[in-house]
Amino acid sequence: MEAAARDPFEIDVERFHGPLDLLLHLIRNQDIDIFDIPISKITEQFLAAIRGVERLELERAGEFLEMAATLVRIKAQMLFPRPAGEDDADDPRADLVRRLLEYEHFREAARIMEAAERRRAKLYRRGFVEVRPAPKLSELPLHTTWDEVWAAAAALSARLAEEAVVHHVRGREVRIEEKMNEVVDALAQKPRVELAALVAPWGTRIQAVSFLLACLELAKRSVVRVRQAAPFAPVWIYRRRREEG
Amino acid sequence: MRASRMVEALLFASEAPLSAADLARADESLDEERVETAVAELRAEYDRDERAFGIFEVGGGWQILTRPEYAPVLERFDTVPQAQRLSGPALETLAIIAYRQPVGRAEVEEIRGVGAGGVLKTLQERGLIEVTGRGDGLGRPLLYGTTPFFLEHFGFRGLDDLPRPDDLPVVLARRDSEGAE
Amino acid sequence: MRASRMVEALLFASEAPLSAADLARADESLDEERVETAVAELRAEYDRDERAFGIFEVGGGWQILTRPEYAPVLERFDTVPQAQRLSGPALETLAIIAYRQPVGRAEVEEIRGVGAGGVLKTLQERGLIEVTGRGDGLGRPLLYGTTPFFLEHFGFRGLDDLPRPDDLPVVLARRDSEGAE
User: Fold this and answer.
1) CB-based contacts of A122, cutoff 8 Å, min separation 6
2) Which of B76, B118, B149, C165 has its CA 20 to 30 A from that of B141?
3) Which chain B residues touch A144 with a CB distance below 8 Å?
4) Are the beta carbons of C168 and A101 closer than 8 angstroms?
């Protein structure tokens, strides 16, 4: 800060919130028309200001250097004569000006908010908060609807289907033996079961195939009968009574 | 600035009880005697106006607290806004239990691929699920099912009233075999 | 139990501002209109008695806060929690989020011309912003918005209470809806 008093262009970069903040400072402090920035002069001043910027942590230094590169590029573009009457949007400075104005507006908003914060900090809320027991969950109204449960179920199902594919690719093997046990267990409860119902909880092709293989193996061993009334009709697995055997 | 109002501001904004000595330090115009007088004055005003709060002696100091008769209102009021909705994991778990009941924690965890302990506890506290029995497996695991409140809340007449298996996400299709795991 | 005293107990005990709807939920005898009347009644009493605190409108609700003239006494007291003020970069970032919400990190960084990761984390930890969703872009970036505590921290009644575009040099509205400035 003392240095700044001696030389107006020797600036402590660290006190700026970033390259746009620094650039705006250079422009506004010299009453420069932001819509007609003398880019050579400003670039020189900016480069002088960020001399020694390497002292800053890497990310911050990079931000200032990036802006320096942008300024140098614009300066170079300005050397090419532009045809008269050309749209302002094609001015190499146009994007920078837009960014500067946008940033300046938010910087101003932040200033107004800071004043609000300062006013609010003068009002104190109650310091001590009595500890009260939290209510039991069951006493609070529940706002969940069935649609939400249903949507969660659908999402879960989709996720599992995806995971199953991944497992399949990894070559996870499905043991037919396991599936045979499941089929037998299912038939312990009721005389017949639909193949689709066995497969459904798992929902993957490889599971369907292994259930079918399990059923066929059980049929071969005369534990079950497999029936399909017509092509594409549901496949039913029937329990074989012992006397049938 | 009146001494009693300075004391009032301090007792209100302080997070710890303040003694007469503490309060006297707030301003040159105060000493312990003046503080005592100020507290007595505030007390008389709060009593006269039947304020919902009063000055109580706590741990060697004073504190402004709500009067005990308002405790029921405050307790009833407490809300945990997020707790009024079920989380994503809770919704999934509830769906699995609704369709596959009775079902054990291990099966729920296997389907969802993550631990279910906390979620099961929440659903139980919420009164949506309950322990309905024990499975046959190792350690006779607890089996969960939905409660009558579950049906009531979602407006189902019975479990048969849940959306049909045809439009059901595959993973939830109730296996007609129970306890196949 | 008088409605105004119930409301007083609730406002006094609550850490955060309470709205008319919040307060009306506390007791069957209350509705929003009665709550409004009760708040007006309390306000008149606090003013008449020159209490050290008053009822302020903050964040869509009411909060009992000390009046500004007591700040010099309170700010010197170590048992009185002091509001932590925000740094310049934090205020700028918060301004962008407040006006543009929901907004992603990339847009914040683009506007300020500097990285925003650390500041966003601080603002989240302080409860001033929260993740409100995900954007459509690459990697479905997190989108941020302000919290109810944000309003409380600045003493704003609502988001409408933010400095108006006409108080500022140029419009702060979204670029895409306004066209490039």
Assistant:
1) C68, C71
2) B149
3) 85-86, 91, 153
4) no
Handedness of CA C163, C168, C172, C178 (dihedral sign): positive
What is the mean pLDDT of the segment spanning C6-24? 91
Whole-number Å distance between alpha carbons of C18 and A72: 55
| C73 or A208, greater pLDDT | C73
Q: Indicate the residue type of C150.
A: F
Residues of C within 8 A of B53 (CB-CB) are 8-9, 12
- CB atoms under 10 Å from CB of A165, counted, come to 13
Contact A113 C169 (CB under 8 A): no
Q: Cα–Cα distance between A98 and C179 in angstroms, integer?
A: 12
Q: What is the pLDDT of residues A163-192, one digit of tens each?
A: 665 554 444 445 677 778 778 877 877 788
Query: Would you say A108 and C168 are in contact if contact means Cβ atoms under 8 Å apart?
Result: yes
Tell me which of B84, B177, B178, B181 to substitute to probe the interface with A (most A C-beta atoms closer than 10 Å).
B177
The count of other CB atoms within 10 Å of the CB of residue C105 is 18
Report pLDDT for A205.
61
**Residue in this structure with the two tokens 């925003």, named with its chain if needed:** C116
Q: Which of B70, B76, B172, B174 is the best substitution to test chain A (most A C-beta atoms within 10 A)? A: B172
Confidence of residue A136 (pLDDT cuts 50, 70, 90): low
> Is the CB of residue B89 less than 8 Å from the CB of residue B82?
no
Q: Are C59 and C151 in contact (CB under 8 A)?
A: yes
Rounded to 10 degrees, the C-alpha dihedral B172/B173/B178/B180 comes to -70
Helices (H) and strands (E) in chain A, counts: 9, 3
Residue B16, classed as helix, strand or coil, is coil
Residue B86's pLDDT band (boundaries 50, 70, 90)? confident
Asked whether the CA dihedral B94, B100, B101, B105 is positive or negative, the reply is negative
